[in-house]
Design brief:
Length: 267
C-alpha cells in the first residue's frame, strides 16, 4: 500500500536552482526551523556527493543552521554543480495492532502505568483510577509490522526491561512504547506527527495541525537512559544511513531516545 499523496497541502517547495525543476516540498505548521530543515534535507531526503548550499529562491539568502522558522510559501533552492538524487527508499507504513508475535498485554499495561497521559497532547487520563482507558492507546515507536527487521538486526538487545525474552518478543518492551490519544495515535502511525528527540523532544506536524500540538515540547521528565551500542564519538546518523535498512534504523534510533517517563517505582 503506497503512502497517500500529501503534495496538495504543501506550503514550502523545493527546486533545483540550475534547472528550476521542483523535486519536493513539505508542510510547515510553524515549528520546523531552518536547522531542522537542513537536517531533513541533507540527512534523510537527499543523497549528494558533497554538502549542499541551500538558499531562499526569492532573496538568495543562504539557509544556515539557525532557529529561525522556515517561512511559509518560501521556495528553497539547493545549489550545486555535482549530482544529487532523491532517496528511493520508501517509508514503511505503520499498521496498528499487527504483530507476528501477537499482542502482548504486558506492553499496553506497562505503557499505561508509566505514562498515564497522552505524551503528545499532554492530556491526562482522569479515568485511569477507575481502570478505564477508552480513547488512550499504547503505540509502538518501532512498527510492529517491521518486527522481522527488529529480529534480524538484533534490536531487542536495546530493550533492557524485559526479562527472559529474546527475539521478536522484545519489540513489546515498554521502552518501545508511547501512550497516545486515539486520534494522536492515528496521526503518528500516518507520519503526520512525529517527535524530534534532537530538538528538545518537540512535536512536529507534517500536515495541518488538527490537534494543536505542533511545537509542543514533551514533559521534561523524559530522559535518555536507554543504553545502546553506539559509543561516544560515533557518528550515529552516518552509521544508520550507510547501514542496511536505514529507514527502519532511523525509527529504532528514535525509539532508543523516547524511553518514556522516568518513574521511581519502575524496576
Amino acid at each position: 500500500m503506497p503512502m497517500p499523496d500529501r503534495s496538495g497541502y504543501r506550503n514550502v517547495f523545493l527546486h533545483i536552482a540550475s534547472t528550476g525543476d521542483t523535486f519536493g516540498g513539505f508542510y510547515q505548521a510553524g515549528s520546523i526551523t531552518e536547522e531542522v530543515f537542513l537536517w531533513m534535507l541533507q540527512d534523510v531526503l537527499l543523497v549528494a556527493e558533497q554538502p549542499l548550499t541551500v538558499t531562499h529562491r526569492a532573496s538568495s539568502r543562504v539557509i544556515t543552521n539557525t532557529t529561525n522558522v522556515v517561512s511559509l510559501g518560501i521556495t528553497m533552492s539547493p545549489l550545486q554543480v555535482w549530482p544529487i538524487q532523491v532517496t528511493d527508499e520508501a517509508s514503511a507504513l505503520r499498521v496498528p495492532s499487527f504483530s507476528v508475535s501477537g499482542r502482548d498485554s504486558r506492553f499496553w499495561a506497562g505503557v499505561r502505568a508509566r505514562d498515564g497521559r497522552c505524551v503528545v497532547t499532554g492530556i491526562i487520563n482522569i479515568y485511569a483510577q477507575f481502570g478505564a482507558w477508552e480513547g488512550f492507546e499504547a503505540a509502538h515507536v518501532f512498527p510492529l509490522q517491521q518486527e522481522n527487521i527488529w529480529v534480524e538486526h538484533g534490536f531487542g538487545r536495546w530493550a533492557s526491561n524485559i526479562e527472559n525474552q529474546v527475539g521478536g518478543l522484545s519489540i513489546n518492551s515498554i521502552q518501545n512504547g508511547l501512550l497516545l490519544k486515539s486520534d494522536a495515535h492515528q496521526f503518528f502511525d500516518a507520519y503526520k506527527i512525529s517527535i524530534n528527540p534532537d530538538d528538545g523532544y518537540k512535536v512536529v506536524c507534517f500536515g495541518p495541525d488538527l490537534l494543536g500540538v505542533d511545537g509542543r515540547v514533551l514533559d521534561p521528565i523524559w530522559d535518555l537512559t536507554f543504553e545502546h551500542d553506539f559509543p561516544p564519538g560515533t557518528d550515529i546518523m552516518a552509521d544508520i544511513r550507510e547501514g542496511p535498512s536505514s529507514q527502519k534504523r532511523f525509527e529504532i534510533e528514535l525509539a532508543s531516545r523516547l524511553q518514556g517517563f522516568s518513574r521511581e517505582e519502575e524496576v
